[in-house]
Amino acid sequence: MKKILALLGIVVLAIGGCSMIKNEPTKEEMIEVLKSREAIEVVEKSLKNLDDKALMDGGIIKSYVIEYDTVKWNPMGGISFKIYINEDYDLYINDLINKYNGKLENGSSSLSSKLSELLKGK
Cα-flanking dihedrals φ and ψ of residue 25, to 5°? Predict the structure, then answer.
């Protein structure tokens, strides 16, 4: 009986420990981060890396919208989300922002094939 209670105690502690390690932010907290000035600067810098005239006259990328419904916590850390370009749902970027050394940075990005083709011609 003592062994069963000890085993049960270990299982409870393991489950509790795992849930403490997980410590994921809520969707609302992640959206708040993405709406911050620091996150906007990171997103716009990554857009300008793709198109040096992004968000300016003559740029291919004229506007962007972060789709907050797509925001989720990445299991490897950071916030994953989708950005739509020029109000076209076929032009999008799946993006990841993470905090490194206390500062937000772009972790990785993947472009839709249509956006990739559009930017290839620049």
Answer: -70, 160
Residue 26 near residue 34, CB atoms below 8 Å = no
Give yes or no for a contact between 93 and 85, defined as CB atoms under 8 angstroms apart: yes
Residue 54 CB contacts under 8 Å (≥ 6 apart), including other chains: 44, 47, 48, 60, 61
pLDDT digit string (tens) for 47-60?
A: 999 999 999 999 99
The reported pTM is: 0.77
Give the Cα separation of 34 and 67 in Å (integer): 10
Integer Cα distance of 3 and 5 in angstroms: 5
CB-based contact 95:82 (threshold 8 Å): yes
